[in-house]
Specification:
Number of strands: 2
Largest sheet: 2 strands, antiparallel
Distance between the termini: 41 Å
Shape: elongated
Number of helices: 14
Strand content: under 5%
Oligomer: single chain
Structural class: mainly alpha
Radius of gyration: 26 Å
Order of helices and strands: HHEEHHHHHHHHHHHH
Mean pLDDT: 77
Length: 366
Amino acid sequence: MNKIISFIKPVAGILAAGALIYFFPDIFIYFAMAVILSMLGRPLCERLKKIHIKKLHLGDSASAVITMAVMFLILSLIFLFIIPLINKEIIILSNIDTDAIVAYFEKPIEHIYDLLIQYNIIRPEENILNVIEAKIYSIANWDNIRSVVGGIVSKTSSFVIGLFSTIFLTFFLLKDPKIVHNIFMAITPDEQTLRMKNILHDSREMLTRYMFGLIAELLCMMILIFLGLTIFGVENALIIAVIGGFMNIVPYLGPLMGGCIGVIIGIISNLGIGAYDLILPNTLEIIGVFVAANAVDNFVLQPTIYSKSVFAHPIEIFLVILMAGNIGGVVGMIVAIPVYTLIRIIAKQLLSEFKFVEELTKRMNG
């Protein structure tokens, strides 16, 4: 009977978790975000719990509230820092003189017009500006606007619900860090209790190190990009650096996306101040800075982070990210390393007798 119960417990737990993820993916995402935030906030929360002033000390609830307040303050400061930069770009965009741009690029536009006619994209009697205007009106009709507004309202309500749910879950995970531990222990057979404790302990330690390492990597990339663009005198170097650095959260594909956004911002900035002759040089400078910063990231930052946080070889990580991207796209690439780390930790505890697993996880021993 005990053997049957020991078999049913983990199977029932796995099936329940799978059903939750399948039928309620939003709830799973909220819980996963709360777990991540609680991992980031736990070091501060644990330190606050140890503070004693005579006989007074902060309880679990007070420590959790203060920790979340600090995290909210940091997030608010980031937004207060970013919003003026975005507002500046909007002002520049609104001040662009389209007539001056058309006059400056008249010959290139005529050349493009000839190419469009040559490849039968537009008819010879059509004016390219009229074609563009018609496309804009077809996009900006009432039905599309109503659909977009409805989508924004729907997304906003979903975001508010998700934000509240994540905050609620994060509070209780900080207040009682053993919640996740107790859930897993409840579905673990008695003879596997020690291994499960080791899995949970190693997972928390390695994922916490990885997340702090990732934050350090993003900050380093922002600094490198900002310094490079500042040396070349590129306008709006700060916002390009912030966006470009943050996009590195997507492995390998992120720098390309960040570089494209940086080039667009650079072009808009030059169009706003009428520096049309600087568009090409600045574009090349932005591309060069992103290539150089990405080289530093690939050969210095990432190997250091992976070797000290998840104990994996860069080639190993590269292959895992490619496979994850093929399966889950951009989201797959973002979660590839944490998921792979969990798989290696579980394999180390449960399948260490296999030579392949032993070789794959031997770096984790030191």
